[in-house]
Design brief:
Structural class of chain B: alpha+beta
Number of helices of chain A: 19
Order of helices and strands of chain A: HHHHEHHEHEHEHHEEHEHEHHHHHHH
Number of domains of chain B: 2
Order of helices and strands of chain B: HHHHEHHEEEH
Number of domains of chain A: 3
Number of helices of chain B: 7
Largest sheet of chain B: 4 strands, mixed
Strand content of chain A: 5-15%
CATH topology of the largest domain in chain A: Rossmann fold
CATH topology of the largest domain in chain B: Glutaredoxin
Structural class of chain A: alpha/beta
Bound molecules: flavin mononucleotide, iron/sulfur cluster, FE2/S2 (inorganic) cluster
Largest interface: A-B, 59 and 44 residues
CATH architecture of the largest domain in chain B: 3-Layer(aba) Sandwich
Helix content of chain A: 40-55%
Strand order of the largest sheet of chain A: 3-2-1-4
CATH superfamily of the largest domain in chain A: NADH-ubiquinone oxidoreductase 51kDa subunit
CATH superfamily of the largest domain in chain B: Glutaredoxin
Oligomer: heterodimer
Shape of chain A: globular
Radius of gyration of chain B: 17 Å
Strand content of chain B: 5-15%
Helix content of chain B: 40-55%
Distance between the termini of chain B: 21 Å
CATH class of the largest domain in chain B: Alpha Beta
């Protein structure tokens, strides 16, 4: 394995970074001090823009650019930290929350200072009760140390942080749904425009950033944009945490330099497949992403390389399926997820999701027809690209990709009137 | 509204720039006390935030961790999404259903256990996993489940769904 010194996960697993003294002994809050004492907000936005940091929440939008969209009209500004992580196969923010909460706090304060947001909301997924408690304790410690509240470190910058717990809904991870949810409403995505930069939380200019995005900021301040942009592809550089799960020897979070190959990630970091197994499919960017296959393993793990393969880096959930996996069953699980999580506002997402879920369910139960196969092959065009938010466009990519690559496996479910894997688990991937 | 609830509600409203933002945290607090989002909680929440009880109900119904019906003292939520499925979630699900004698979403007749199948819990590297009253259990084998279940049967948790 090429030696890459972890940045975001440094010390995790060895040090108790949820202890503020330990965090400080290992360089914690030095970036905050530098930012507040030596840098203007404009200089920080400039540095983050120059680093080419792109958002780690899924869409990969350039962070510096997002920050510079805020109108300069004197209205109060909000920064929202998105810790609602619920994309199937993704568990990096959950780890950062529990194991290095001060890194999130430091990133939040610097970012709030940079965009001059005196109000910050930390939105934590409802299921992360343990993480919520850890973060709450960390906040109290940071507050006692003078990092939050009025005139932080004598800089004149004042910032209040509201800790908000979600109550169970994947869609609240979508940024405008999250704003609705914080306002105490149903978490239904808003029609854009207006964009949150102009009319966000309580109608005010708002930036929503992912946990991992914010964790990159202190390192950019300490080591400079040039250091960051030199890690991996220049257009989407930096360290990136990939959550590897499924049929691999060592599932876990791995911090990689952006751009290493899928093969290196799988074999060098995650220990490869289990003995005697063959690779069948990988979802490289969470449940919403189209699959890649054995022949694609040289693809770089970064936003642009995966987009060129008609899939995405998304949230960085890398789910590995070996030759024992029934791809009809896997598709059924994912389609049901999106069906279940649809907020119901758009017809293609709501009705289409239910329809496809029923069809795939029929196939897996051995009650599918040749006509179902035909419809599944073309329905992508009706469902994808016709919805208000990207959830509706997430229903089909995985299913369409595996149906195209393994049509015979889908056909076998019709011909044998049942799932071949339940009768013969050793069914070959070839 | 009980004085205690009024106090908690006022605290929550003070935390936000807008009263309605306190709605979900307030319902979480009520649920911690009552075990679910009761009719009283809906009326109290409406009073606190200045919206109608029907609006409160519609908002509450959007969120899967706000229970509209009484649930058991023990809420067991088994993850059913892909990464867990690839590592034995189907077996764990069948086993849990059989041991508890419950289907997805059911509560036992004695009101002690509720069983649910839920979506990815962001713990996919330690699959299959479940939550018991929002506490994580990782790499759960059927044998682990049985050992835990014995413990759960013997204890009476003070709170099922903690608000904080
Ligand atoms: C259905 C859906 C779910 C999402 N869930 C999350 C999430 O859990 N965490 C997250 O950071 N972004 C999530 N996003 C992306 C957010 O809308 C938003 O792009 C992101 O938080 C912006 O932060 P970033 O620019 O730092 O990546 C989701 C988007 C959609 C459409
Ligand atoms: S695409 Fe689906 S989840 Fe998104 S707004 Fe429309 S119905 Fe809701
Ligand atoms: S799939 Fe079960 S925790 Fe992610």
């Amino acid at each position: 394995m090429a030696a890459f010194e972890p940045v975001l996960t440094k010390g995790i697993g060895e040090l108790d970074l949820a202890d503020i003294d330990v965090y400080k002994q290992h360089g914690g809050f030095s970036a905050l001090e530098k930012a507040l004492k030596e840098m203007t907000p404009e200089a920080i936005v400039g540095e983050v823009s120059a680093s080419n940091l792109r958002g780690r929440g899924g869409a990969g939008f350039p962070t510096g650019k997002k920050w510079s969209f805020l109108p300069k009209d004197g209205r109060p500004r909000y920064l929202v930290c998105n810790c609602d992580e619920a994309e199937p196969g993704t568990f990096k923010d959950h780890m950062l929350l529990r194991l290095t909460p001060f890194a999130i706090i430091e990133g939040l304060i610097i970012s709030a200072y940079a965009i001059n947001a005196s109000h910050v909301v930390m939105y934590i997924r409802g299921e992360f009760l343990e993480g919520y408690r850890i973060f709450k304790r960390a906040l109290a410690a940071a507050s006692a140390a003078g990092y939050l509240g009025k005139d932080i470190m004598g800089s004149g910058f004042t910032m209040e942080l509201i800790l908000h717990r979600g109550a169970g809904a994947y869609i609240c991870g979508e940024e405008t749904a999250m704003l609705e949810s914080i306002e105490g409403k149903r978490g239904e995505p808003r029609l854009k425009p207006p964009f949150p930069a102009n009319a966000g939380l309580y109608g005010m200019p708002t930036v929503v950033n992912n946990v991992e995005t914010l964790c990159c900021v202190p390192h950019i301040i300490n080591r400079g944009a040039g250091w960051f942009s030199a890690i991996g592809p220049p257009k989407c550089p930096g360290p990136k945490i990939i959550s590897v799960s499924g049929n691999v020897a060592n599932p876990g979070n791995y911090e990689i330099p952006m751009g290493i190959s899928a093969r290196e990630l799988l074999e060098e970091y995650a220990g490869g497949l289990l003995p005697g197994r063959r690779l069948k499919a990988i979802q490289p960017g969470g449940g919403s992403s189209a699959a890649i296959f054995e022949e694609d393993l040289n693809v770089g793990i970064d936003f642009d390389s995966l987009a060129a393969k008609k899939t995405m880096l998304g949230s960085g959930g890398f789910v590995v399926m070996d030759d024992r996996t029934c791809l009809v069953r896997a598709s059924q699980t994912l389609v049901r997820f999106f069906e279940h999580e649809s907020c119901g506002q758009c017809t293609p997402c709501r009705e289409g999701g239910q329809w496809v879920a029923r069809m795939v369910g029929r196939l897996e139960a051995g009650e599918g027809s040749v006509n179902d196969l035909r419809v599944l092959g073309v329905i992508n065009n009706t469902i994808t690209g016709t919805n208000l938010c990207p959830l509706g466009d997430s229903i089909m990519p995985f299913l369409s990709s595996v149906l195209r690559r393994f049509p015979e496996e889908f056909a076998a479910h019709v011909q044998q009137a049942g799932c071949p894997f339940q009768k013969a688990p050793e069914f070959s991937a070839a | 509204m009980t004085p205690e609830r009024e106090r908690r509600g006022a605290q929550l409203v003070a935390k936000y720039p807008n009263a309605q933002s306190a709605l979900i945290p307030f319902l979480q607090a009520c649920q911690e006390e009552d075990g679910y989002v009761s009719g009283d909680a809906i009326r109290d929440a409406a009073e606190l935030t200045g919206i109608t009880p029907a609006e409160v109900e519609s908002i509450a119904s959007f969120y899967s961790l706000l229970f509209k019906e009484p649930v058991g003292k023990h809420v067991i939520q088994v993850c059913r999404t892909l990464s867990c499925m690839l590592r034995g979630a189907d077996e764990l699900r069948d086993h849990a259903r059989m041991r508890l004698g419950l289907a997805n979403g059911e509560t036992s007749a004695d009101g002690r256990f509720t069983y649910e199948e839920v979506e990815c819990l962001a713990a996919c590297d330690r699959a299959p996993c479940l939550q018991h009253n929002l506490e994580f259990h990782y790499d759960v084998t059927p044998e682990d489940f049985d050992r835990q279940l014995e413990r759960w049967r013997a204890e009476e948790p003070a709170v099922t769904m903690p608000a904080e």
